[in-house]
């Protein structure tokens, strides 16, 4: 389902409201809320809004568990780190226990070793069902999401929940949730805005099915809801 808004401020508000709504619903139903954050520049406005006085007190952060959809294999203090951005905009500003935060990086192990460890952490919190309450995703200009990049072997993964690999075009390792795990979620919210997203959004939502070229097409919830929050520019209606 594609929802079109006038600008990024409107998108940020809708996304923050969805986060709060999902958190309140999950905590009321089962005593905890499991969420997956996304990196890049797109979600920064959402995170800042959630950390604001108008929003942060609407959630019992002691019952929130935070994971990431993907990460560049860099230390947490690196400017390229998704976790660093998430801390600076949100997590350092709300009363969430540190043990409830699962960063996608660890010193002293290989990315592949930590992918297996990260999967165990997910299973410990979510159980064998592996169903997150809410997953936030971005979409690249090339139609990738998380670290599911065009043409990479990770697109074929059916068994692992978390995978790591060397992304040659970027000359770095990436660690990512896989499509089968993402598709288990209760709600998946994709944020995309700006002129650079026009082509990918059109191909992903209305084009021929070709996930090798447009990996976002792999995201098809098993029983949950998929929402695209986009602006008029990305939707090509402006």
From TrEMBL:
It holds the Pfam family Glucosamine_iso. GO terms for molecular function: 6-phosphogluconolactonase activity. It comes from the Bacteria. Keywords: Hydrolase. GO terms for biological process: carbohydrate metabolic process; pentose-phosphate shunt. InterPro entries: 6-phosphogluconolactonase_DevB (IPR005900), 6PGL (IPR039104), Glc/Gal-6P_isomerase (IPR006148), NagB/RpiA_transferase-like (IPR037171). Residues 8-227 form the Glucosamine/galactosamine-6-phosphate isomerase domain. Pathway: Carbohydrate degradation; pentose phosphate pathway; D-ribulose 5-phosphate from D-glucose 6-phosphate (oxidative stage): step 2/3. It is an enzyme of class 3 (hydrolase). Its EC number is 3.1.1.31. The keyword Transferase does not apply. It catalyses: 6-phospho-D-glucono-1,5-lactone + H2O = 6-phospho-D-gluconate + H(+). The keyword Repeat does not apply. Transmembrane segments: none annotated. Hydrolysis of 6-phosphogluconolactone to 6-phosphogluconate. Belongs to the glucosamine/galactosamine-6-phosphate isomerase family. 6-phosphogluconolactonase subfamily. This is 6-phosphogluconolactonase. It comes from Flavobacterium nitrogenifigens.
